[in-house]
């Protein structure tokens, strides 16, 4: 049976299309612009990298601290939409103003502000899944969000790349003009795709406020952290998510550096990234369709195992065309594992506390981002002297220190898989005991039924 999304579900998916444009900007042109601005003011290449790392770490820390608190506050009646609106407004304005920044320090300050607001908007946005659809539809709706986010973001991505080419290759635009146009395109795309959800969203599940909102939120958050020890399915899933999603994020973050080590130039790397986005679209749609017949936990397990073999394959890469194969493989499972994880988590948490739990979910996701990259760096550095000696002796090897560093990520996926299996078993015991807090929900035969529920 064909899956038909309701108008509200489509508006929710559309925000994924809007915010994904900022994600692509951060991973492609934004670091290039910062490098150019910083270099023009005498910042060395070494300092540029460290400053960029510091800014990214500060943004991660801000989200780790504010995410759970704002998520908890968003569970109060009428607060979710307000916090969502504020995060979007700060993020979009920060993005738009970035193009006018000519001093590297102010550029970094606005980058931290925009990126933090973007991440905080996702905490609230993910929790909205519990309000915009029913439990039985979460897997496919979540998959549609990532799928259309990947393919839809290619439109502003191509436009911004075109602007950059006009500056870099044809010198038609100055750097300042190119920056202003690039950031304006992304900001307009982001806010335009946000407006339909902002206008039509209604908070269906909430907690009645009692006392001061911040004190109430902190008290509730502390209680939830204590409760996690007893909620084994949620706890073990979060631990599993911490490990396997770290492997996923590390592959995304390190892809450019790894491709450079294989001899790919900047244009080829950007095109490979575009291929990953395009492949991720039909893959996420297909997995969303499969979720009607296959339990989502099985799909997540398939994705984790697939990523394990992707890291093993990466060990033996020594030709540029093999990197393209890697990009396609990553695209097949990247959106899927993120979408299935989001919907799986949404189904095992109390809906009225979705914002609070997704704030914690974000800590485990974003907080894991440093372990994988650190592991890759440590393993690479440890084996570099050995391979340098082999090279000095005239011995050729397919495996390199960099590839062994990437291979170390396989451990992350194995640990994540083990904890996820434990979480699934805990969930089955809970279902058998009749302790599922959400129940099976209302069965929906087609989009029209949900349309009546959500729009009527």
Short summary of the structure?
With 456 residues, this protein is mainly α.
What does the average pLDDT come to? 85
Fill in the CATH topology of the largest domain: Growth Hormone, Chain: A
The helix/strand order is HHHHHHHHHHHHHHHHHHH
Distance between the termini: 24 Å
β content, as a range? Answer: under 5%
The total domain count is: 2
Number of helices: 19
Report the oligomer: single chain
In which range does the helix fraction lie?
over 70%
Number of strands: 0
Which ranges are low-confidence, i.e. pLDDT below 50, for 5 or more consecutive residues?
438-456
From the 3D coordinates, which CATH architecture of the largest domain would you assign? Up-down Bundle
Radius of gyration: 22 Å
CATH class of the largest domain: Mainly Alpha
What are the key terms here?
globular, Growth Hormone, Chain: A, mainly alpha, 456 residues, 80% helix, single chain, 2 domains
Description:
With 456 residues, the chain is mainly alpha-helical. It has 2 domains: 10-205, Up-down Bundle (Growth Hormone, Chain: A); 224-433, Growth Hormone, Chain: A (Up-down Bundle). The chain has helices spanning 7-27, 29-40, 45-74, 79-98, 104-127, 129-132, 138-152, 154-168, 175-200, 213-227, 232-261, 266-290, 296-315, 320-348, 354-366, 369-392, 401-407, 409-432, 447-455. The radius of gyration is 22 Å and the shape is globular. The protein starts with 6 loop residues before the first helix and ends with a helix.
